[in-house]
Structures are given as structure tokens and as C-alpha cells.
Design brief:
This protein has 207 residues and is of the alpha+beta class. The chain has nine helices and six strands; from the N terminus they run αααββααααβαβαββ. Strands 1-2-3-4-6-5 form a six-stranded mixed β-sheet, sandwiched between helices. The relative contact order is 0.13.
Length: 207
């Protein structure tokens, strides 16, 4: 994925996740959000094309803790400015942010002040953040192609497991991930009250 792909990616995000918090902040915030995946050494940003037409994308991170530190260091001010701009233009979204996310985001900012890289015991986990395949290109295996490429990169850099979250029930992609070898670990209620399904994949099983 490159800068030239961001308009298509933002449009696809707004089409497929219209009720998500990031989409409600508007296209300006989404463009800045997806830019954070383009230059991060611990991020993955992929585009798939059919006959030269962008038909799907995937973004994820190979080390969530370190990626978050780098994101806040190099993109934090710009991302916060775009987010604040979106909130000021949308009072209902601002209210929702204060009620559901403000404390968590402030905690993350405070932690970012500690630039010491800490070793963490336990499995090293990669996170698949978003994957979308355009409706006209479904059934061609593009989703599997994107996810497999992400998992291969995660395995190559020494990740033990990968995880993701999707909407629970028929509106989500749980059946796709189950068929692809992911393990459903739990359901939980997200910040916006939506039921979410959590999945994991053991990368040691990949050949």
C-alpha cells in the first residue's frame, strides 16, 4: 500500500465499517490513521488488485506494543489533531468518545512517555487490524491471499500467534476465519456495545 492508495482504502473503510468509531470521525482522520501503517517497520499494509483495479486491502501490526510507541512518537500529534477536528464537527461522536474511550486513550498517552523498550514474557503476538475485499471481487480468494501474506510476514519475524477481532454473528467474518484455521477464543462487548468475536491463529502450525 502506498500514499496513492489511501483514497480507495478510506472509501472502502467507510463503506464496509460505516458505524465504526474511526469512520464516524470522517475521511480526514481515516487518511491519517492509514498513513501510520505505511512507514512503520512493525506494520503491514497490503493492497490487492484485479486487472489493475484496487479490490481489497489489509493492515495489521507485527508487534502491537512497540508499534503503538512508534505511532505515538511519530504520528501522535497529527493523528490527535485530525481526531479532534473530527470530534469537534460531530458532537454526538464527541460525547460517545468521552464516555467510552477518553480514559483509555489518555492512559496510552501517559505510557508513551516511557521510551524504554521493555521485554515482555509470553507469546509474541501479531494483530490483524482490518481486511476488506470489494464486493465485485469476492469469491476470488483475495481475502485468503491477503491474510496468508500477513501471517507469513508475522511468522517470518518470529511472532508466535496472530489475533483479530470481528463483529459477532452473521454480520461479521467469523465463519471465514474459522474455515481458514483460526480458533475462536471468546466473545465480548466492545466500547460501542457491539458484540465482538476474538480469534487467534497459532503460527507454529503454518508450513
Amino acid at each position: 500500500m502506498g500514499l496513492q492508495d489511501l483514497p480507495d482504502v478510506v472509501a472502502a473503510h467507510r463503506q464496509h465499517f460505516p458505524n465504526g468509531f474511526f469512520a464516524r470521525l470522517g475521511p480526514r482522520f481515516l487518511r491519517r490513521y492509514y498513513r501510520t501503517f505505511l512507514d512503520g517497520p512493525l506494520a503491514v499494509a497490503l493492497i490487492v488488485e484485479v486487472s489493475g483495479v484496487p479490490s481489497g486491502y489489509l493492515v495489521g501490526v507485527l508487534d502491537p506494543v512497540q508499534h503503538r510507541r512508534l505511532l505515538l512518537t511519530y504520528h501522535g500529534v497529527a493523528l490527535a489533531a485530525c481526531g479532534l477536528f473530527g470530534l469537534m464537527r460531530r458532537p454526538t461522536v464527541l460525547t460517545r468518545f468521552v464516555l467510552t474511550r477518553a480514559r483509555r486513550y489518555l492512559t496510552a498517552l501517559r505510557r508513551s512517555r516511557d521510551r524504554v523498550i521493555e521485554s515482555v514474557d509470553g507469546p509474541r503476538i501479531a494483530v490483524l487490524s482490518n481486511v476488506v475485499v470489494a464486493e465485485h471481487a469476492r469469491g476470488l480468494g483475495l481475502g485468503t491471499l491477503l491474510v496468508d501474506a500477513f501471517l507469513a510476514q508475522a511468522r517470518d519475524v518470529g511472532r508466535d500467534r496472530a489475533c483479530l477481532v470481528t463483529v459477532a454473528g452473521p454480520d461479521g467474518a467469523g465463519s471465514f476465519y474459522t474455515k481458514s484455521g483460526w480458533q475462536h477464543t471468546r466473545d465480548a462487548t466492545g466500547a460501542d456495545g457491539q458484540r465482538l468475536s476474538h480469534f487467534e491463529r497459532d503460527l507454529s502450525e503454518m508450513v
